[in-house]
Design brief:
Helices cover 41% and strands 18% of the residues. The chain is an alpha+beta fold. The protein has two domains: 159 residues, no CATH class; 188 residues, Nucleotidyltransferase, domain 5 (2-Layer Sandwich). The strands form four sheets. The protein has a six-stranded mixed β-sheet with strand order 12-11-8-9-10-15, with helices on both faces. Strands 1-7-6-2 form a four-stranded antiparallel β-sheet. A hairpin with a 4-residue loop joins strand 6 and strand 7. Helix 1 packs across helix 3 and helix 4 packs antiparallel against helix 5. The radius of gyration is 27 Å and the shape is elongated. The protein starts with a strand and ends in a 24-residue tail after the last strand. The chain binds zinc ion. The site of zinc ion (ZN) has 8 residues, from loops. In the N-terminal section; belongs to the transposase 2 family.
Amino acid sequence: MNKTYILPINQQELAKQLSRQSGRIYSKVVSTIFKLKQNKNIWLSKNGMEKLIKLYASEFRLHSQTKQGIVQQYYNNLKSFFNAKENQENAKPPYKTRKYNKVIYKRSAIKLKDNGVLRLSNGRKGKAIKVKAPSLTKKPKYAELIYHHNEDKYKLHITVEVKNKKIDYDNDKVLAIDLGQKHPMVTYNNQTKESIIYNGGRLNSFIRFRNKELAKLQEKMSRCQKYSNRWKKLNRAKKKLLSKSKNKIMDVLKKYASHLISFCLKREISTIVIGDLKGIREKINFGTKDNQKMHQWLFGQLIDIIKYQAKAIGIKVKFIDESYTSQTCPQCGYQHKPSDRNFDCPNCNVSFHRDFVGAFNIYKKYTRGSLDKSSRLEGVLTSSYGVKYDSNSISCLTNWNTSPFGQGIPA
Ligand SMILES: [Zn+2]
């Protein structure tokens, strides 16, 4: 199975130069095709075009396979035109030239060094693109440097062949997730009795920034005539803010979900249990209506990503009513609203970290049907550790068994 991952790169100026050269080659292909079609009524073959481009771009600082890749790119578009022409009279051959174009790297131009640096060659004369990718265990078979409009940045898209680990899913290993505002996820699993706390610091600061800027823009917009030039300008700024924030938040959610799924694989978890969204609404005070909508959207997305990734590898995802899960003593079942970071049970004197209590009780409710006293507790928690978002780490997992985070998953 092929998987594509997106990596941030530092060499933005170099990427722009490469993309400009790629655009020149692509445009040369387009103009040559049309000149020959017009003057001699022939479609130049791909082979002929490759030879021509080799000469044309001999001084370009691009890998020879990259140059060929751009020719290939055009001929793929041309092929779709010939296919479309059979049913569509007004189909047009790809005629648009491009100032900038993606930069294509084939296998022979890609190297994964021992120090975890991915090196993309731009020929003997060109400077290479280098990206740190410590969690890559295998060299990508294909890569593309692509411009992301919304972030005004070039990013590297890599394609890796991934072998999925086979799990015997007929087991009773369960991982419970407590969704929350301070920490988007706290998990507990009955296999190793560990708890993972996904840090919500960056996520919440993205949301606070978004809410603050949005309120400012809306306030300004309310003071000017609707559809006036100024209003339109502010509206554009608003749309940009919303899409940028959305991307940032989705990046956190995707990385956290990937980390979670790879953890489940490593622990051979067969079932993930999540408290339902209704419970979250009751549990958390979100303040403004907009902020509440924002969080509902966020948790909805997070659940969707987890469901999607879990399904892809055969892990079941179940939902349960999470009422009282954060207010019940894991040991004796006594109901008590914790007032600080700890859950100190006034009935049996046991003390737990408050965040862990929710996750454990979701697990307990799922496996035993209730939070009753009758449920006896065996060696509840062995260890807990935190996972923190890092915008520079690999966007997605390259291998289910490795972690996108520096420290990785404990063995
Ligand atoms: Zn108790």
